[in-house]
Design a protein that fits this description.
Number of strands: 17
Order of helices and strands: EHEHEEEEEEEHEEHEEEEEEH
Number of helices: 5
Shape: globular
Helix content: 10-25%
Distance between the termini: 50 Å
Largest sheet: 6 strands, mixed
Structural class: alpha+beta
Strand order of the largest sheet: 5-4-3-2-1-17
Strand content: 25-35%
């Protein structure tokens, strides 16, 4: 398949988990009606972003994967003939939780999951309290519409993660994400942060010759202290923006990407070919010093 239509669902969330799931399903249907073949939802779309506080009650939001949410989404994927990328709070065992994305193929088949590898611990993003780092390694999923690579939010800052995912044969890289601005910040700081976020992900697209899809939430949360900045986007294999979402509106967009551009870009800008892999072993060190 040379061209694929990507649906991105950028939405705000509420406290009720079922309401968020129902809303996401309606937006998946809207994307499919616009021609989407793969639909990506934002990080932890069934809830508010609860990691702003360390509260043991929030563990009640977690569920097994596969489980209730994948059971609800699988028939939707089959009915519509779309691949669904769904970011969920996984309860793996008693006291063991992950930030996980499930991938459901266009016939409703659950293909598997990717567990977020890089876990942040910043003010208002206390994810280490909730999530165990992923132990499944980096993953690609062979779907009806191409080989999908999935990384999650904080993973987006790490070129090593995107490189490995690309080397595994991904056709497209997806980043479900949840990131926003402290509403006490000045506008220059806001723009600097957003530009850094977009730039690092577009650089993964350029370095690997792959389309990148990043889907973020919108809306005010944390009693108005946090404005999730939306700004979801899709690039082509050279990092060119094909779609850019707003900072404050819910949006269901469908963007066509040409998968044949990867071969073209890798031939004309042969970054993968020219890698000096025999020189890269120091990258596995924490820091290159004498200790």
């Amino acid at each position: 398949m040379s061209k694929v239509k990507i649906g991105t669902v950028q939405m705000s969330c509420v406290a009720d988990k079922q309401e968020n799931l129902n809303k996401a399903i309606e937006k998946i249907k809207e994307a499919a009606a616009k021609g989407a073949q793969i639909v990506c939802l934002q990080e932890l779309f069934t809830s508010l972003y609860f990691c702003d506080v360390e509260d043991y009650d929030n563990f009640d939001l977690a569920e097994p994967i596969p489980g209730p949410s994948t059971d609800a989404l699988s028939p939707v994927a089959k009915e519509l003939g779309v691949v669904i990328i769904a970011s969920l709070f996984e309860k793996r065992a008693q006291g063991l939780y992950h930030n996980t994305t499930a991938v459901i193929d266009a016939d409703g088949t659950y293909l598997g999951k990717y567990r977020k590898m890089h876990i942040p611990d910043d003010p208002a993003f206390y994810e280490k309290f909730y999530f165990t780092p992923g132990d499944l390694g980096y993953k690609i999923f062979p779907t009806k519409f191409g080989k999908v690579g999935v990384l999650i939010c904080w993973d987006q800052w790490y070129p090593e993660a995107s490189r490995i995912t690309a080397l595994m044969g991904a056709d497209i890289m997806f980043y479900p994400t949840a990131i926003g601005w402290d509403t006490t910040q000045d506008e220059e700081t806001n723009q600097d942060q957003y530009n850094a976020w977009q730039t690092i992900q577009r650089s993964h697209s350029v370095a690997n010759g792959l389309p990148v899809v990043s889907v973020n939430r919108v809306g005010f949360e944390q009693d108005g202290a946090m404005k999730f900045w939306g700004g979801s986007f899709v690039t082509n294999a050279q990092g060119k923006l094909l779609y850019l979402g707003s900072h404050d509106q819910e949006e269901v967009a469908v963007t066509e990407v040409d998968l044949t551009q990867t071969d073209y870009m890798r031939k004309h800008w042969p970054f993968l070919r020219d890698r000096r892999i025999e020189t890269y072993s120091p990258i596995t060190k924490r820091f290159i010093d004498e200790d």
